[in-house]
Design brief:
This protein is mainly alpha-helical and about 110 residues long. It has helices spanning about 1-20, 25-35, 40-60, 65-90.
């Protein structure tokens, strides 16, 4: 008789723990947004954050704040990555003009 009672107690405790879980997709959203990876991580973080937010709303898991943070941080790091790549393209890229053709060497 004590076995059926133990079984009924284990059920609600398990479902309560399921709602205490933090959604992994929300965690990865924030991690990838922070890492940036040249902008690709930011895009992945924004996408995962949007998906995680919808999933958290449906499943009742925790992590909505992490998902929103992943989206916000992803947008900010994406803007920084775009600025970085524009700077690199303008200042480090080849061809400095000059009209003489060829690159560098000082005309030797």
């Amino acid at each position: 008789m004590s076995n059926p009672q133990a079984g009924t107690r284990a059920g609600p405790a398990y479902t309560q723990r399921a709602s205490d879980r933090i959604d992994r997709m929300a965690i990865w959203s924030l991690v990838l947004s922070i890492l940036t990876l040249g902008g690709i991580g930011s895009i992945a973080g924004i996408w995962l954050g949007a998906k995680a937010r919808a999933r958290v709303d449906q499943s009742g898991e925790r992590g909505r704040g992490l998902a929103i943070a992943g989206i916000v941080v992803g947008v900010i790091t994406l803007l920084f990555a775009i600025g970085y790549w524009v700077y690199i393209a303008r200042h480090v890229g080849g061809g400095h003009g000059g009209g003489s053709g060829g690159g560098g060497g000082g005309g030797y």
